[in-house]
Amino acid sequence: MRSEFQGSSFPRAYHTAPPLGEARAAWQAVEALREATVGAPAARTLSALRDALARTDAFWNPIRTLVAGSEGAPLDPAALSAAAAPEVPAFPASGQGLAVYALDRTLGTELLSRRSPPLMKMAGAPAAWISSGDAKSLGVNGTIALEIQGRTVEMAVRARDTVPDGVVLVPRDEDGAATAQGAFARAVAHAGR
Predict the structure, then answer these.
(1) pTM of the entire structure?
(2) Residue 192: what pLDDT?
């Protein structure tokens, strides 16, 4: 048994067929869901794939006629279609503070890996997310203290354009697990003020 260990773990075993039972790799589960909803995709040639890409955006036109062994073709970033800024609906002002929602952090390949000390160290400290508008109006500068359901929690915070005004996303591994979804929090102190 000891001879099977390499360092502190078992060696990886690569299989071409799924294991017996219900367990599947994440990509296999996603593929099974996709096939169940939209069916299996038709096989495509490389030229058909390039043609499909070229129809989506002028940026991809130079690769349409490439063949193996050619010198290739440069892609011009100026030819990219400008994506419209996402429109994020604002939550109605309640006068009770920011609505708190738990935010899961997936480190590595799965949700539970956030409990791995090496991965947590690599990912850094968890941080709450608020809208840029709320960050400006609250004068937030890297840290926020929130009074949530009778307790005060201080944590790092980052402004994100994709978070609606009136919402704070709290990492589940910081305090999100202890907070009811949609509960209101009041900002009680801000670092840098």
Answers:
(1) 0.50
(2) 45
